[in-house]
Amino acid sequence: MTAPNALDHVRPVFRRILTWAALLAVGLAVVGGIVGLVVAGTPGLVGGLLGAVLSVVFLGLTAVSVLVALRVSKGQMISGAFFGIVMGTWFLKFVLFLVVLIALRDRAWVDFPVLAVVIIVGVVGSLVIDVVAVAKARIPIAVRLPGDTVDPGNDTPRP
Q1: Angle between helix 6-72 and 112-136 (nearest 10)
Q2: Running DSSP on this structure, what letter comes out for residue 44?
Q3: What pLDDT score was predicted for residue 158?
Q4: Contact status, residue 111 vs residue 46, Cβ threshold 8 Å
Q5: Taking 70 as the threshold, does the pLDDT of residue 43 lie above it?
Q6: Mind giving me the DSSP string for 68-104?
Q7: How many other β-carbons are positioned within 10 Å of the β-carbon of residue 30?
Q8: In which band, very low, low, confident or very high, does the pLDDT at 62 lie, cut at 50, 70 and 90?
Q9: How far apart are CA 7 and CA 138, in angstroms?
Q10: Which residues have C-beta within 8 Å of that of residue 95, sequence separation ≥ 6?
Q11: What distances in angstroms separate CA 42 from CA 34, 39, 101, 102, 105, one per listed residue?
């Protein structure tokens, strides 16, 4: 038997992250939309809803990029393909974020402070989701240490 591949164990973690992100999106849309409507009227509602959508799109892109990178690199996290896909997606998200903010900066139909606050809450929420999901994950590792023996039919190290 060969050592487990990272894709087998990381995939459920990122699926959980995407599920929690969907719940975060609903919460952000409801709370951000209502608070935005109360604070700034219709432009605040639009800012709250748009901020929720942007937050979740960017969060989802991160999780999806890791899943795609793991699939392309055949579960090997130490590969050029893995890092290229993840970092390329991060760079794309950064540029896209700047373009969206610049495009929405002076629009009368969106309240920019509400949009910014909802995006910030979404980013903090996504970081909490990532930390909790990874901290609760039970991902086994197979590392050979000095003095370990290996069974002939199983290359998993034994103490």
Answers
A1: 130
A2: H
A3: 54
A4: yes
A5: yes
A6: HHHHHTTT-SSSHHHHHHHHHHHHHHHHHHHHHHHHH
A7: 13
A8: confident
A9: 13
A10: none
A11: 10, 9, 19, 21, 16
Residues 6+ apart with CB under 8 A from 9: 137, 139, 140
Q: Amino acid letter at 81? A: A
**Encoded tokens for 156:** 């998993």
Structure tokens at 87: 């970092």
Distances (CA, A) of 73 to 3, 6, 51, 98, 138: 16, 10, 33, 29, 22
Structure tokens at 121: 């809450």
Query: What percent of the chain clears pLDDT 70, i.e. is strictly above it?
Result: 86
Residue 30 DSSP label: H
